[in-house]
Amino acid sequence: MRAAMLLAALALPASLLTTPSASAAGSLTMLGADVSTAQRALDLGAKYYDASGTAKDPLDILKGLGVNYVRLRVWNNPASGYNNKAKVLSYAKQVKAKGLKLLVDFHYSDTWADPGNQNKPAAWAGHNISQLQTDVYNYTYDVCNSLKSQGTTPDSVQIGNEINVGMLWNEGKVVNNDFTNLSLLLKSGYNATKACNSGTQVIIHTADADSDANARWFYDGIKAKGVSWDITGLSYYCPWHGTIANMGSVVADMKSRYGKNVIIAETAYPFTSANADSTANSITSGCSGYPLSWQGQADNFTAVQNAARSNGAIGVFYWEPTWYAVTGNGWDPTNINNSGNGWDNMAVFNWTGNVNPNIKWTP
């Protein structure tokens, strides 16, 4: 009997082996997609096709696959002119018109902010910590209130993006376990958001889904300084962050330790190791049990959702599912026309804009 059960288990898809079934778990209410590059792609004439081959608005295709929440990053003054306040305001109207909720991801930079890069906007370059507190408050309030004034109030915001060791370096960087300055900045962002709209949820986001010790160090550190937040956000990419089971353990601990809801704010998986342009892919290998194929991508995303759900998370966001290789929609805002796309093998649309027919967002 045990041998028969083992053989039966080996025949199951990897997504069903990794975590308990969805029916035995809670519910994911934030079924998200970060589509921050979609505006530029559409402006360049990119086409998106559903599983039947019909050209549609990518938001409609994603909504049909279960998405109910859109994440848009905002940069202060990017050289490309994309992902700035004006572009976010414009696209937010389309997001809300389709009945989707909105998460605004404040990077507090003119370009990418992540665990290794947290550069201040050029306009704030010489500012000390006191000035930066005012900068964060005023900028956060301005973007939020501008969205509110046009009828597209954000449902949630991130105060910083993957701020594992702080933001707005060097003033807001955590050095020698000192969270003082970072906490002042986070409080400014929180207070500005709540002044704009008390119901908007504040997310504090790190890329610590791989390490419960690192996650505890960070969130214990800001909690000890009196920082308030509503949702704990974690990034998880299995080639970088280890097993899905370990991610689930971190999610469970974050929820129980801080008594706050948890989301996977970013995840994605490659459908191929091939490259559509001259820019090297950011991720070129997969994880055990998930081949680099449409089915492997879908199974991995299902497994991530199942693990998040069964460990108490309320949401999962796929990062840049619409960012397929479109000439002129490069990764570098200082050279968007020529820099290429390192994510073309991670999108859920292939290089001709056809959606992965197997992928689903599931409550």
TrEMBL record:
GO BP: any one term: pectin catabolic process
Catalyses which reaction(s): The enzyme specifically hydrolyzes (1->4)-beta-D-galactosidic linkages in type I arabinogalactans
EC number from the UniProt entry: 3.2.1.89
Stored SUPFAM superfamilies: (Trans)glycosidases
Pfam families: Glyco_hydro_53 (PF07745)
Keywords tagged on the record: Glycosidase, Hydrolase, Signal
GO terms for MF: arabinogalactan endo-1,4-beta-galactosidase activity; glucosidase activity
Range of residues in the leader sequence: 1-24
Enzyme class, first EC level, given as a word: hydrolase
PANTHER family for this protein: ARABINOGALACTAN ENDO-BETA-1,4-GALACTANASE A
Family that this chain belongs to: Belongs to the glycosyl hydrolase 53 family.
Protein name: Arabinogalactan endo-beta-1,4-galactanase
Source species of the chain: Streptomyces canus
